[in-house]
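Title: Comparing notes on inverse folding

I've been comparing how different people in this forum approach sequence design from structure. To keep things fair, I'm posting one structure and asking everyone to reply with a full sequence. Here's the target:
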């Protein structure tokens, strides 16, 4: 098997508390042929000193603050590798990540091989969750619309990233959604490797945690991809319906936040995308019945009320553990059939 050079790109802004662990996780890869590139995005804390402490083990560059997308794009420009692995400065790669994914990419199992990951908030590390890249092998555009692909999940061909112009630097949030949806629109294929191969740590005040901003940017991302496919003649009825459903799911986030006018704007967008309005795909069977009776806004408020006992339980550490001991085992048993070692994630 050939072992192409992989460039691990780490953008960083004011991450002195976490970036050393991220860099070390990149350096600890068991795959034999890689380089680590760290782009300091104008940090004002001690991040640059931490980066410098790794000496010649990494390549690095610093410059003015332009945002994570610009930093990643600069990393792509500097990359010598045929393949690219992205890593955020507060996340961690497992040592075997490249070793497990690169052979599948090289063997052309698919253009993009996606793995699973475990995530947690740094203020509550015992409350971890596992996110899966699982999908049914359907149309790549539908795959990208139904389930987000997190930035570090795949190993990517540099050539494919250059072809679509890398990350869109005007986006502050939903950058990964946009990137992989644009890749999907070019016709790339996806494959799911059912293994947890990295950790996502959500830190306080992180940009990705801003739910309102995420919904605003998702609307823009969906419309732009929709128009690209429509203008190229590749917007099938099935795809249009999935775009409408994605817009409805985003509208539901607005409605749950009490932002009724914004939510209805996105519901109107969904009806423009497809006559069905995407309702059939965005709601479960029972929720569809309720939505037809009382409308989308009241439906979301009812769902929030129904989940109130679970949310209250999660406020107590002990109650949270008891809740997952009772209800989490079913999810773990289903997921463990994929080959992941998940039993400890909610213990």
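Reply #1:
Here's my take.
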């Amino acid at each position: 098997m050939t072992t192409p050079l992989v460039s691990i790109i780490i953008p960083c802004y004011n991450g002195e508390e976490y970036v050393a662990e991220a860099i070390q996780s990149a350096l600890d890869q068991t795959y034999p042929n890689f380089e680590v590139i760290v782009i300091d995005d104008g940090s004002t804390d001690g991040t640059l000193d931490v980066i410098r402490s790794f000496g010649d083990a990494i390549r690095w560059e610093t410059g003015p603050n332009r945002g994570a997308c610009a930093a990643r794009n600069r990393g792509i420009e500097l990359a010598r590798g045929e393949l690219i692995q992205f890593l955020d400065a507060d996340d961690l790669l497992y040592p075997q990540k490249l070793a497990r994914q690169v052979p599948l990419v090289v063997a052309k199992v698919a253009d993009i091989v996606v793995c699973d990951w475990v995530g947690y908030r740094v203020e509550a590390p015992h409350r971890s969750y596992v996110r899966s890249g699982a999908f049914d092998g359907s149309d790549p555009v539908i795959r990208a619309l139904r389930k987000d692909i997190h930035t570090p999940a795949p190993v990517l061909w540099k050539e494919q990233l250059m072809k679509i112009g890398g990350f869109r630097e005007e986006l502050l949030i939903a950058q990964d959604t946009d990137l992989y949806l644009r890749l999907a629109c070019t016709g790339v294929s996806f494959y799911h490797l059912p293994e947890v191969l990295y950790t996502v740590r959500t830190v306080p005040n992180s940009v990705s945690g801003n739910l309102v901003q995420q919904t605003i940017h998702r609307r823009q991302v969906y419309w732009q991809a929709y128009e690209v496919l429509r203008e190229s003649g590749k917007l099938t009825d099935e795809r249009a319906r999935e775009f409408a459903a994605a817009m409805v799911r985003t509208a539901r986030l607005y409605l749950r936040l009490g932002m009724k006018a914004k939510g209805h704007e996105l519901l109107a967008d969904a009806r423009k995308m497809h006559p069905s309005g995407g309702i059939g795909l965005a709601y479960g069977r029972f929720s569809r019945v309720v939505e037809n009776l009382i409308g989308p806004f009241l439906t979301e408020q009812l769902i929030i009320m129904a989940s109130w006992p679970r949310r209250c339980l999660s406020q107590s550490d002990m109650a949270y553990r008891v809740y997952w001991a009772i209800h989490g085992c079913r999810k773990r048993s289903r997921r463990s059939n994929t080959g992941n070692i998940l039993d400890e994630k909610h213990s």
